[in-house]
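Example (one chain per record):
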Amino acid sequence: MTSTIPSAVSAEQEAVEQQLVDAVVASFDNTEDPRLRQLMQALTKHLHAFIREVRLTDDEWNSAIRFLAEAGHITDDQRQEFILLSDVLGASMQTIAVNNQAYRGATESTVFGPFFVEDAPEIANGGDIAGGAPGQPCWVEGTVTDTEGNPVAGARIEVWEADEDGFYDVQYSEHRVGGRAHLYSDEQGRYRFWGLTPTPYPIPHDGPVGKMLAATGRSPMRASHLHFMVTAKDMRTLVTHIFVRGDRQLDIGDSVFGVKESLIKVFEEQAPGTPTPDGRSLGTRTWSRTRFDVVLAPSTV
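Predicted structure:
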């Protein structure tokens, strides 16, 4: 690793610091798991390089320790502050980029986010995921295929989203379930459901990550999106979102760097009284519709 230590540091001081790095790296030499050994030694080198590059002070290091402790204290089974931290530093998206290489037109992945919940209710094709959550109704439809265009039947499609006020169900104290469900693609690989038209919202910013964003002049706002996780036998699991074309937040920026051009979709607003695809009556309400065709890569790539 190339040294980035300022020239003001003497050769003697640099030698002392490098000796420590070498000693810590060597302390992991007997790690039986070769991958764990690689991870720990690389982490040590990069961490020490950062400390030496910026000449980190004791107070700054102690502040970092307090920050991590606060992130741990605020984390519970409904809020994961460390995922937020990973997201706003771009680490989540970089990990996704490393682990989901482009493959023959397969749908691109993006961040998982902190609000996924296991065991979301199942709905039939054409069902409603809103569960009473407030927002403009939105009809979502599409297909699940492999990269050769063959339909993938029985793919499990997990969907979740915030309501029009920018909150996920788990952020409410009454333990409601809304804005999330799972369904399965049919024999032709088709799926369809009612959800809510996505709107921009801020990530939780009342904790240490929010304080960090404020201190650095960054916004906590996320572009409007709807989460998907699609799993199927012999296929690579897809974790992604779709975003709303025309959303002003796309131009301003997404706080977790999750936007990809291929995932921006048209959500076409429908006037009151426009017939719905399944004959549902929405009275005088407006609604929207969008299409998202999912292409899964094989699990071997």
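Caption: The chain is about 30% helix and 20% strand.
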